[in-house]
Design brief:
Elements: H1 18-22, H2 39-52, E1 61-64, H3 67-86, H4 89-99, H5 105-119, E2 127-130, H6 131-141, H7 157-177, H8 181-207, H9 210-215, H10 220-228, H11 235-242, H12 250-262, H13 266-280
Parallel strand pairs: 1-2
Helix pairs in contact: 2-3, 3-5, 7-8, 12-13
Amino acid sequence: MSGMAGNSLSPLPPLKGNQGSASDPRRNVWLSASAGTGKTQVLAARVFRLLLRGTDPAAILCLTFTKAGAAEMAARITGRLARWVRADDVELFNDLEALGEKAGSEELAFARTLFAKVLDAPGGGLRIQTIHSFCQSLLSAFPVEAGLVPGFRPLDGREEYVLAREALAEMLVDAEREGRMALVDHVGALSLRLGEGGAENFLRQCARAGDALEALPAGIQPWLRRTMGLPGGDIEAAIADYCSDESFDTASLRRIAAANRAWSAATGQAQAAVVEAWLEA
């Protein structure tokens, strides 16, 4: 990002082929291109051309998917406009020519004023936002129409995490006080299996899938066995049967162990030991 400001800016590259058409403010364009093909360059060129043709900076809105993308676009545009203020005529002429815009004396003088116009725009610059932040600004501007309480604000990730932990803790305390120890035991078993963070993440996902949880049958274990084609009875015994010499190709596995044993490297010896231990079990 440091290369976007100051004297380190290189001249704007000329727009090639369809890039000129895609950046033409008179056209409504849907741009689709692979990574690294110059989409950001074309979008920035479109903003430059809008400004050079007299568009009010407050009327321009750029939306990106990520905050990093928004920051890159803002740095690229404002850095170039700031450079135009102090660029010599030749440098500025070349940039306007690269954009396909007129580069007469009046156009050069107007280009030097754009940085100040952008700074004077509401909010102190162009509106270059992520889709999420733009939608949030719309909801904040029209909370009643959206069915929200005026003055609301979204939770950040840290606040959401803290509230979720508090809700889980209160649920476990209430369950223990009311003698519903099965719930406490299940959450404890889940923590042992997934780890504390993994269990909390799993429970948060469950909380967001209320309809799916309600659709599950009352007898979840028999339903899972039928749905997944699992045998009835003792699962451990069924696994042992499937791994017996009668059901499993142990001869091929022994050949694999022998091949690993013949491999003198430590990795081969370790793998052979694991396979042989399983065969002896």
